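Students often ask why inverse folding is considered easier than folding. One informal answer: many sequences map to the same fold, so there is more than one right answer. In these notes we will look at a single instance of the problem. The structure comes first.
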């Protein structure tokens, strides 16, 4: 009886630790987005300035058109509210520039209201993912117990032995 209570409390402790781990990991990961976006916007601004200079210097209409397209994407991201920047970035982002920004990305959290909101949403998503994984594992465990009973074993405990 003592070991059953200890193992149950140990499983609850592991469950809480894993829940906190998933929640915190996802929250910290999503809180990086505003910092990454700032670095992406700096790189995008540099591309726009360089494209405009080259278009003016060499009179290249295709390059001027590219600069206008990049500037439109930059304006769309800058005009979006902090909570809509992620979908606007996905819709208007230049992935070649985004990849280069990611290669030089330096992680950081500044604890602005925007980053705290991303952290909270990410923590909630992480907790939901953990709950889903836990539910799938519980379903598999219950199916295995039922299968064990069907073959004449009354119960399979956590160590895998039939009782």
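Output (designed amino acids):
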């Amino acid at each position: 009886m003592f070991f059953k209570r200890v193992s149950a409390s140990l499983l609850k402790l592991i469950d809480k630790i894993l829940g906190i781990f998933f929640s915190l990991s996802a929250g910290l990961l999503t809180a990086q987005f505003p910092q990454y976006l700032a670095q992406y916007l700096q790189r995008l601004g540099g591309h726009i300035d360089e494209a405009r200079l080259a278009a003016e210097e060499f009179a290249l209409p295709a390059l001027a058109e590219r600069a206008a397209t990049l500037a439109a994407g930059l304006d769309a991201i800058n005009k979006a509210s902090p909570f809509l920047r992620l979908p606007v970035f996905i819709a208007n982002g230049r992935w070649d520039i985004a990849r280069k920004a990611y290669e030089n990305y330096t992680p950081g959290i500044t604890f602005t209201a925007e980053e705290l909101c991303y952290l909270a949403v990410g923590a909630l998503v992480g907790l939901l993912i953990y709950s889903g994984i836990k539910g799938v594992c519980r379903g598999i465990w219950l199916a295995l117990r039922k299968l064990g009973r069907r073959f004449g074993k009354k119960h399979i405990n956590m160590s895998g032995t039939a009782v």
